[in-house]
Amino acid sequence: MSARKVASLVMGFLIVLSTARPSNAGDLVLAWDPPSDGITTGYLLSYGAAPGSYAQQLNVGYTTSFTLSGLSDGTTYYFVVRAYDAAGDVSDPSAEVAATVTPSVPPVVTTLSLSSSVASPQLTGTTINWLSTATGGVAPYQFQWALYKAGSWTVWPWATASTWTWTPTAAGTDYQVKVAVRSSGSASTTGEMTQSMPYTVTAPASGITLSSAGFKVKGVKNANLTWSGASGSSVDVYRSGSKVSTTANDGAYTDAIGGKGSGTFIYKVCAAGTTTCSNDSTVVF
């Protein structure tokens, strides 16, 4: 081939990056202008990961563009192309060009919903089924469920279940149910999207009725409590928010408050070990 033909090939060589794809390997689209010799029958494409060093060579045939697949994301490659004719004569290489494969960006979840089978509020002991649905990203999704109560979160492991069943045993107005989602194959610890929902749980209405009466013995304060409607063999007795005794559920208890003088005390009686309690009853001295 003549020098003129080689020069035409060298000056016309160019490279174009393809769109990044969601995989571990990238593609590069290369294109070049052909020499105007009329005798070129094909091209040799050489490339490597260092300038001037071409570990790979491909006979791409008679075409002026070629897509290289299976390249490593984030790696810079260096390319030259040479023309050949039917007699096997090969031109000098073109000017070297370089390109870096753009790291692939995996798709992420774009929508996430959270719903409960029954609306808030509900009584303790009610079974509540939760459902989360997601779109976008890569299915099958992984979900992580979490429950907030009294200042702390309980978090369950990542799993494929988009449903969660909760049967609350304690009343509260600060519950939060949260779900996070991530795509298949993702190692994210926080997920690609999260949704949360507040929830209130109430205690069943108590059937315990309490009355109280204060009295003094030699000036020392005492209180007689009587109640009805409590279940179980024992009850917890509370005075002004603090438990003072667990006693038999026989309907009567005398609280030796102690001390002389005035004072106000608020009592309630609860089924032992539960939050099922009576009305408040106040004793004033």
Q: Which helices and strands occur, and which strands form pairs?
A:
Layout: H1 3-12, E1 13-17, E2 25-32, E3 40-48, E4 56-61, E5 65-72, E6 76-85, E7 97-100, E8 109-116, E9 122-123, E10 128-136, E11 142-149, E12 152-155, E13 163-166, E14 172-182, E15 193-202, E16 209-217, E17 220-228, E18 234-239, E19 242-248, E20 252-255, E21 264-271, E22 281-284
Parallel strand pairs: 9-15
Antiparallel strand pairs: 1-2, 2-5, 3-4, 3-6, 6-7, 8-10, 10-13, 11-12, 11-14, 14-15, 16-17, 17-20, 18-19, 18-21, 21-22
Explain what this protein looks like in three dimensions.
The protein is mainly β and 285 residues long. It has 3 domains: 98 residues, Immunoglobulin-like, CATH 2.60.40; 94 residues, Immunoglobulins (Immunoglobulin-like, Sandwich); 76 residues, Immunoglobulin-like (Sandwich), CATH 2.60.40. The chain is built from 1 helix and 22 strands. A 5-stranded mixed sheet has the order 9-15-14-11-12, with no helix packed on it. Strand 11 and strand 12 form a beta hairpin. The N terminus is likely disordered.
